[in-house]
């Protein structure tokens, strides 16, 4: 979030020349794109993990009930009950909702700093 804040402050500074403004805009767009890619991957991982349990349950396993397969499938279904989520620092889930939250918070801080500066 600090990267986004510093880039926005650079973009909004009125004393910059055109070259510095273009560099700041490129830096901001790359930082946002990098965050978006990680969050999109986290969202895809979460969706695939949610679909795994449904696919295993709908596989018709009850028709081919062999003890080793049934046991493995039961473990898979048990594991699929807990959501599969990519976490930043082991705490914060990395999804598209968190991407929107980071952008929203970053802009709120920027607006507050800009109001205080004026």
Detailed description of the structure:
GO terms for molecular function: odorant binding; olfactory receptor activity. It is a multi-pass membrane protein. Keywords: Cell membrane, Membrane, Olfaction, Receptor, Sensory transduction, Transducer, Transmembrane, Transmembrane helix. There is one protein chain. The protein is mainly alpha-helical and 118 residues long. It has one domain (2-117). Helices cover 74% and strands 3% of the residues. It has four helices and two strands; from the N terminus they run αααββα. It has a two-stranded antiparallel ribbon with strand order 1-2. Strand 1 (87-88) and strand 2 (92-93) form a beta hairpin. Helix 2 runs antiparallel to helix 4. The longest helix has 40 residues, at 18-57. The model has no long low-confidence stretch (mean pLDDT 82).
